[in-house]
Amino acid sequence: MKRQVLLLFFCSALTQASTVGQAVMAALIGHSLAEDKSLSTLPVAIQMTATMAASIPAGIVFARLGRRPGFILGAVAALVGSLTFAAGVWWGSFPVYCLGAVFAGLGFGVGQHYRFAAAEVATPGYRPRAISLVMTGGVLSAALGPEIVKHTRDMVVPHLFLGTYLTLALLPLLCIALLSFARLPPPPPRNAGGAPVREIVARPAFVAAVVTGMVAFGTMNLIMTSTPVEMMLCGFGIGASATVIQAHAVAMYGPGFFTGRLISRFGTARVAATGAALSALCVLVGLQGQGFWHFAAALTLLGVGWNFMFVSATTMLSAAHDPAERVRAQAANDLIVFGTVACTAFLSGAVHAGGGWAALNLSILPPLAVAVALLAWQRWRASGRDAASTVAPSPAVPASGRPAHR
Question: Is residue 110 part of a domain?
Fold first, then answer.
């Protein structure tokens, strides 16, 4: 089991390294290629839209072919994305560059299922740790992605970042090689049963999980996407913004070494609420000034907040469905979560261009408050069920909260 989790760790790291590197470059390249500067974050928005769009096809592929063939197809999409990005930079074409974001988003969307695969190969008691450990692959990606950008951005003069995308194209190939050694669960039987999607998404446990994931990823993406542009406007170079994004990525994935233990000890609601508080603290730090350390500290807090909320949301989701429903529940979750991320990517450039850095930061506070309120409500419901069960024990109920079929 731990060997499979380790392989998933490295595959997740390689998949996310391209995305972290893209976070450094995308808005800057978009700003240079687009005539309308409010469209500078459009490539990121397209990538997140493609990530959302990948949810349902990925679910179908995983259900019919299994995890490993699905992940290989995702790696191929990421490879095509890097090469198309390189073509857009070579030709100086904003539309071609945006086309690369479609393939990159599809690959990233499939790669999001590595955390679900970790939950499937792990025993129930080890599941929170397996999820968080696979997500710590982002620590490796945080070191690798920005460093590739720093050392390859001028490799093909005068085309800035062309060498970077050609280098990033090697990462999916390495991922495919690692997947050849993986032994992952087979697809569920066609007649596995389970509830339809409309029933799954109506469960309070699913709603709490998906909203927590939406807010975690949406608020993080809203701030992170425009940070390189804001730093450029403040006079910082590409190296400085790459370092800030690198610190942010380490903060996103580094806590994964202990987030699972925190969840096992304190529960998902408390850990997720702590993450929301750290994300709110990011706003306070970000509004204190626009020096390098203001950006670095704010993005670090935002990264840790994202980790606590998103790992908690994934753990909550794993308990909100039965095994036969896992593909449907995971596809529906990612469709909703990354649909939100796509919207925030579109909004990030527009809000930043129209309202400025302060307005962009303040805009994440209302959704954080909604997430905390929902977590409190879900915890209150769980306490009520526990109290009721001590008075009148009921028949066994599966983790999804639906009575077992007899």
Answer: yes
